[in-house]
């Protein structure tokens, strides 16, 4: 399998973002978005997916965090799409139930080339510190759309909003790690009867 690494950038009047990923990494991250809680979540995504990530984002944080979070998801998804190429030799499907204290969240992934998000996660507060909890969904919507993955995230239960958000990122990371693992039984095949995972 060829090295799976790529870069992507996005510059608008609202944000200036650059991302690099190495899918077959060790979970090293270098994240700076200006949004502390989001940086923490992206660190978790990198660490538990074993995808090395470098993220630099400058956004209109004087307005709010929305554009920075969403556009980071877009750029990260675009980098993953480039890194995966034809998506040959991957396991493609995975799901993972992740427990953190009182919280349990499941993520199921199909690296299908067809973007879709099913989001069954609720928060009891609009904020985690200064971070808008609705932005968790916005990030995963942007990531799924631009990475070309079908992603289902379900929070089974939980009381602490920080834990709920963190289990979403960690569960997605673990499912993504499993889905992108090389398949030793068909290392050169595109895992689809269509012969393509381009959508």
- What value does the Rg take, in angstroms? 16 Å
Principal-axes shape call: globular
Major β-sheet, in short?
Answer: 4 strands, mixed
Beta-strand content estimate: 25-35%
Helix content: 25-40%
Q: How would you describe this protein?
A:
Helix 1 packs parallel to helix 4 and helix 2 packs parallel to helix 3. The protein is globular, with a radius of gyration of 16 Å. It is built from 4 helices and 10 strands, in the order E-E-E-H-E-H-E-E-E-E-E-H-E-H. The protein is of the alpha+beta class and 199 residues long. The strands form 3 sheets. It has a 4-stranded mixed sheet with strand order 1-2-4-3, with helices on one face. The protein has a 4-stranded mixed sheet with strand order 5-6-10-7. 34% of the residues lie in helices and 30% in strands.
Feature tags:
single chain, 199 residues, alpha+beta, 4-stranded mixed sheet, 10 strands, 30% strand, globular
């Amino acid at each position: 399998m060829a090295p799976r690494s790529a870069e992507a950038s996005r510059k608008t009047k609202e944000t200036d973002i650059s991302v690099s990923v190495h899918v077959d990494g060790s979970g090293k991250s270098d994240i700076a978005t200006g949004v502390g809680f989001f940086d923490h979540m992206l660190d978790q995504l990198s660490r538990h997916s074993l995808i090395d990530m470098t993220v630099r984002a400058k956004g209109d944080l004087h307005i709010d965090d929305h554009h920075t979070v969403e556009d980071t998801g877009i750029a990260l998804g675009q980098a993953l799409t480039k890194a995966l190429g034809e998506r040959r030799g991957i396991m493609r499907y995975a799901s993972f139930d992740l427990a953190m204290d009182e919280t349990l969240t499941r993520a199921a992934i199909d690296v299908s080339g067809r973007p879709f998000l099913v989001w069954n996660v609720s928060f009891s507060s609009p904020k985690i510190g200064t971070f808008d909890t609705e932005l968790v969904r916005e990030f995963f919507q942007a990531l799924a759309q631009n990475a070309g993955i079908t992603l289902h995230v379900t929070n089974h239960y939980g009381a602490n909003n920080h834990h709920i958000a963190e289990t979403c990122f960690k569960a997605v990371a673990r499912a993504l790690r499993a889905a992108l693992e090389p398949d030793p039984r068909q290392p050169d095949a595109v895992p689809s009867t269509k012969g393509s995972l381009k959508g």
